[in-house]
Amino acid sequence: MNEIATLMAQLAPKEGVNDTYLSGVHVFRSSQYGARGPMCYSQGVLIVGQGKKRVYLDNQTFEYDRQHSLVMTVPLPVECETFASIEEPVLVLMVDIDLVQLNYIIRLMDEHHQIPKDLNESRQSGFFVADNTEDMDCSVIRLLQALQSPLEAKVMGEALVLELLYRLLDSPDAAPLYALSLSHTRLSRVEKALNYIHKHYGESVEVDTLASLVNMSPSAFHRSFKEVTSSSPIQYLKKIRLNKAKALLQLQNLKVKEVSTQVGYESTAQFSREFKRYFDQSPGECARL
């Protein structure tokens, strides 16, 4: 087991998501193969210490492993496949992207004329895969070491997360991270609309309202939204509602009708049909798992 995996294993004694002493930083462990299935990835950085994960988004397939990190610049519903075993569990460091921290670093880089001049608008998708450089691995090791101690996590944790973000911004594929920080870019506008969806998914959400919120015409907004998320606004909203519903069914003792209403469906029958189609199991079957 490599040093990064060893440190992650110490922070992840149980299956699933393990909290650390630092807010916004978690370590995920899974000791079994996970078949391809729908889930929602949050906005953040995913760094593998051991094992491999494969992500399917629309017609794209990409992997992240010990050599490659996944950066989600916006929250995205995807399909994911996990490659792990008891002998070699998958271990993943999960770091939320804090826009205040990101903006701080980019402002400093701008003051030192270190912002890349060739930021390509066409490369501003909702995610990118970054190569794990030696500098990046050193940053990850320092962060994982600090997370072993509540005092060190409190004293040095935030600075070490800043260092990690800085290393990611040095990636040749980091245009989406810069775009997230710049208010006039397509990606930052779509991200604002996504934040609205995640706060109001249980209500009626109109595409025209979202377009107006980010000062775009409905047609331009629809096109930009599709380019960033690989989904239309309506498809994205539906996937978010269904993923939220699955979490409610598994974590809370609620009836299917209550859940369907809570996530914004007017018809329980329609909710059940779409849930079954998306997850390949009925809401009732999901609740019993």
TrEMBL record:
| Keyword Transcription regulation on entry | yes
Keyword list (alphabetical) reads:
DNA-binding, Transcription, Transcription regulation
**GO molecular function terms here?**
DNA-binding transcription factor activity; sequence-specific DNA binding
InterPro entries the UniProt entry points to:
Homeodomain-like_sf, HTH_AraC, HTH_AraC-typ_CS, Tscrpt_reg_AraC-type_HTH, Tscrpt_reg_HTH_AraC_N
What PROSITE patterns would the database entry show?
Answer: HTH_ARAC_FAMILY_1, HTH_ARAC_FAMILY_2
User: What Pfam families does the record point to?
Assistant: AraC_N, HTH_18
Q: Which residues form the HTH araC/xylS-type domain?
A: 191-289
SUPFAM superfamilies for the chain: Homeodomain-like
UniProt key word Cell membrane? no
* SMART domains associated with the record: HTH_ARAC
Give the source's domain of life in one word: Bacteria
This protein is called AraC family transcriptional regulator
Species for this entry? Shewanella frigidimarina
Its organism's taxonomic lineage begins at:
Bacteria, Pseudomonadati, Pseudomonadota, Gammaproteobacteria, Alteromonadales
